[in-house]
């Protein structure tokens, strides 16, 4: 057997407010309606119920027997709805979803995000390490950290440059030692390259005044900087990396940057989010924190 349709929600809200205040006037003020509109909605509900819900007197109203039985149930139902929405809102406000490119996630955010969590313990973080673009309109993502060119992103998004993606060759000390050390840029061509087709290699060698032909070398590809870094630390080749990400690896002796010369092609790492979300508290908290935390990476540029 099918369940009868519920009465209009507007009529139920009018009844609940009038029953709580025992006044059509005060109910109208609370709901932003006229007194006549409240009276009409209650009549609609009475027709659906099949019995009067109020005893209308000269200057006041009182609940009828039917109304007195119904009012607590309706109030309890609204309280349940309020609680459900408040809990849902709380979960949304208390969870920050960030989509971040893998290199930035592995070599910067994972190492520093604990500082944000300590400063904002009321927020839980969910990080999605992915290079794919996200659709803020349809996916449960609050913020993105992406690599992109200057004058990016598009006008409907807020974009904050976190650091410029400068690049320089890096390799393991053991690999450098295998040819007696790397003393000049041309020495790097004696070694395997993690991704010979990477445009950064050609740009950097041009800056160094070294002729470079990528087509004459094996065309291995790793597809992401953090994978090339792992290969370089394993001694598998020279990788073209962003030095700002690998200070710990250099300090620990897992990587060396043999030359101070760095290249830059206009790309950087950006914090992005829809412009319409710029005043949401949790987004402001993360934006302010990460811009301050990455400030040393931008100094002197």
UniProtKB/TrEMBL annotation:
UniProt KW keywords: DNA-binding, Transcription, Transcription regulation
Ranges for domain HTH lysR-type: 7-64
Transmembrane segments: none
MF term (GO), any: DNA-binding transcription factor activity
GO BP field: DNA-templated transcription
Pfam families, sorted: HTH_1, LysR_substrate
InterPro entries documented for this protein: LysR-type_TF_proteobact-type, LysR_HTH_N, LysR_subst-bd, WH-like_DNA-bd_sf, WH_DNA-bd_sf
Family: Belongs to the LysR transcriptional regulatory family.
Protein name: LysR family transcriptional regulator
